[in-house]
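Human: I would love a firmer grasp of how sequence relates to backbone shape in proteins. Could you go through the record with me and say what the backbone is doing? Here is the record:
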Amino acid sequence: MRFSVARMGTSVLLVAGLLVAAPQAVAATVDAPTARSSAVAAPTLEKKARNLGTVLLSGRTAKRKDRMVLQRRTAKKRWVRAERFTSRRHRFRIVVWKKRRRTPYRVVDRSSRRRSEVRRVPRLRVTRDACGVRPLKASGEPWRCSFHDDFEGTTLDLSRWTIQKDGFITGDPPGAAACYSGKNVSVADGSLRLVARRASLLECPGLAGITKIFTSGMVSTHDTWSQRYGRFEARIHNTATTRRGLHEAYWLWPDERYGAVNGDEIDISETYSVYPTLSVPYLHYGADDGAVLSGPEQNTAYDCMAHRGEWNTYRMQWSASRIRIWVNGDLCLSNTSGSPAFRKRYIMMFTQALGSGTNAYNLLLPPPIPATMKVDYARVWR
């Protein structure tokens, strides 16, 4: 039997029929905790793998609606904030990306400071396929390689590519024009090479009446390959110059085997020697109404840095509802119109052309000729 009596700052404990004086603090610790934090249950934290790239962290909180902090421990063993959130109905769910190392996580109640147990998220396992290291989608699933060419060897793989040999000209007559020639396409030193060079008038048959003093190079996947949606990437080097007259393109054109073209076109990158520091992406609709620089129907951008004379990497991610284009890792264009123009299969093309308009070849101040567009690799995923 145990009881306490408050008298002159002391309490009394009855033990085997004897009265024993004790400090008041004894009675205070007998019946209930006094610390507020000890009365609040610690949050729980569980983990569940979602796919190769992400893990789901979930758990319960003491309150129905609790303000929480997700923390992760760094390589230097310091806990840092990863995310703030509020639980709903005592529960929470957070998706985290795997990292290159095994990473500990915990959640902390911002009111009581109670912490969950630590859960360790396994490190990201890097997987490879024909395109190399498999990049991850926003969902955490890896992209799957659907087309690749690293241009090794000394000849172009004609099972993948078609060489443009005739049919139309490039350049802006009467200043200067060129036809396309298979002689201007080669593979050497690990890259595709498309060259613009001087030529005789006899090298462009079937295009009489137009002064043609150059030939140029272009390849495409016409009749060999096409795709709707996915991730497209290429690494490209252009001839360094500030003089106008050269024009290069990494672009997509509708596959005519699957429907009408209607003037639709996806220019992942167009470079012009008159603008030696820029790459200009452009999305062409059937009813193109000029440049749109922002908003859901953005179709071009004039601030994508890509210096001539240097290697630059161009990437596009394309779905039914959105097209985004990056240059050297920087997002340059985002179109969320979901236009039917971009819901069909397209072929891929690389072109070394001559300029037109404000970028027309100037015979008095010509750019370096021959000029070469080099493509280190072309990769596509779905």
